[in-house]
Amino acid sequence: MTALIALFWRDLRRAWGSGALWLPVVFFLLVATAFPFAVGPDAPLLARTGGGMMWVAALLAALLPIDRLVRPDREAGVLDQLAVRGFADEAVAAVKIAAHAIGFGLPLLVALLPAAALLAQDATRVQTLATGLAVAIPALASLAVLSAALTANLKGGSAIGGLLVLPLAVPMLIFGAGMLDPSGRGAMKLLGAASLLLTVIGPFAAGAALRGLRE
């Protein structure tokens, strides 16, 4: 258990070290700054479409650091050492998911406020976005760690990883954007169900991928 706790804190320090803490913040602000240039200075249009764009940006922010989630540990032999000491791959994957969820999730929620202001989102929509993202962050982290485990042996794994998780992330994007529609009352429940399903399945799927790296 001590080794897993140490792994959690080490992954969290790696996520927030060398200025990486601000990566999701900068990414969100770049998206929020560039998007109005694409749609023009139409505030109502920005208000309608900006929320969906922020959900896409959240998915991409979760995938930005997948090259450092699993590959360094595989190359350094950390995964082999944990396996020899009897730790289940599913437990290792769960720890990595938790560390990644905190490592990118907290900066993501901080970046939400200035990004929402740039995209003409009112207070009600900002609150809805914050609630939806808080629910979805564990699932997005699960997809990122799963993608990192599947592509740890491949060069350019981040690009391939995005293609792998896109079909699984589509329901999250649909339900998350649906929450912003006044008529989408059931979207929050569907988002919560989808997030719970991915969060529960994620450690088992990523654990199986970690075992595959040793075979």
UniProtKB/TrEMBL annotation:
Name by which UniProt lists this protein: Heme exporter protein B
Family: Belongs to the CcmB/CycW/HelB family.
Membrane-spanning segments: 20-39, 45-64, 97-120, 132-152, 159-178, 190-210
Chain's role: Required for the export of heme to the periplasm for the biogenesis of c-type cytochromes.
UniProt-listed PANTHER family: CYTOCHROME C BIOGENESIS B-RELATED, HEME EXPORTER PROTEIN B
Subcellular location per the Swiss-Prot or TrEMBL entry: Cell inner membrane
Keywords attached to this entry: Cell inner membrane, Cell membrane, Cytochrome c-type biogenesis, Membrane, Transmembrane, Transmembrane helix, Transport
Membrane topology: Multi-pass membrane protein
InterPro entries associated with the record: Cyt_c_biogenesis_CcmB, Cyt_c_CcmB_bac
Pfam families: CcmB
Lineage start: Bacteria, Pseudomonadati, Pseudomonadota, Alphaproteobacteria, Sphingomonadales
Predominant location: membrane
